[in-house]
Amino acid sequence: MVVYSPGRANLIGEHTDYNDGYVLPFAIKRYVKIEIQPSNVFKVYSEQAKRGIQFNKLEKTNSWADYVIGMVVKLMERGYEVRPFDMRIDSELPMGAGLSSSAALEVGAGYAIARMMGYDIPRVELAEIAHACEVEFVGVRCGIMDQYTVALAREGHAMFLDTLTKEYKYVPLRLDGVKIFLIDSGVKHELGNSEYNKRRYECERALILMNKKSFREVSLEDVEKIDDDVLKRRARHVVTENERVLKTLSALETDNFQLVGKLLYESHYSLRDNFEVSCSEVDFIISYLETQPSVYGARIVGAGFGGSVIVLAESEFPEVFGHLKEKYWQRFGIELKMMEVYPSEGVFAHE
């Protein structure tokens, strides 16, 4: 059996999912491919790493295999029996590009194991198990957006997700004459993971200072009363980003891509200035795109400190990208990569 588990792009709503906020992601037609068959011992092989791991003990290895081992652990904790398997993993998702390759692997591995064992696990439960794997086993305190998107996405749609109530609805992406591109900056600064957890801690500290239990209770007036400048800016990003998601949702209903693009740029400025998760390479890309009439908007996606930029543009954008690629090489000596992305369905299998 072969399972295809999609990557995730987030149109808008960054660093809000672990703050009880709103997000507007969609799955993309780029996949982690997982082949699985029963075995007498647990074996996992990665085409990207060109190496395999065989394990009997369900312990951390501090490697990519933890996303699979962690899913076995969390499935068992939920009462699902998991017998040994031979799993081969191949991926067309670039690691560290902010496209949620880890969630794709978690959800895909869980889905493959469930199918092999004959379980029909509800997709919401599968997403919850994958989230527990990432937070409790791997040790990254992420929100639920990535796992929900990979498990539940619908082709041709974005997913408006309220991470407080976990309610979601599908939003048609009628991209007539408009296209979505992802530019891989080719950089992933090492401080990313530690700074991600630090941002989460800073948001928690800001809530304590405002005497609030959730950012959904917070207004901009509350934010401006915070004395600590850093914590004030972190909180300001969360509150204003939630507003931008709701405005984007309304703009998509009327296909107002000019407004969507404006909101994407505003999101990037806030991620750069208030949340401080951008970097010089990504800011260079955004600055260039702002000068191009065929580009509606763009922003950094994912945890930050490198990774990818999402671009909403007209169909002639590849020509613009060609000029940007040349300037970027001259400035940083890094070759930019670009892909056009199409909204995909969630994880699925081919028998």
TrEMBL record:
Record GO terms (molecular function):
ATP binding; galactokinase activity; metal ion binding
The GO cellular component terms are:
cytosol
Query: Its GO biological process terms?
Result: galactose metabolic process
Which one Pfam family would you cite for this protein? GalKase_gal_bdg
| Protein family | Belongs to the GHMP kinase family. GalK subfamily.
**NCBIfam families given for it?**
gal_kin (TIGR00131), PRK03817.1 (NF003006)
Q: What is this protein called?
A: Galactokinase
Q: Which organism is it from?
A: Fervidobacterium thailandense
Upper classification of the source organism reads:
Bacteria, Thermotogati, Thermotogota, Thermotogae, Thermotogales
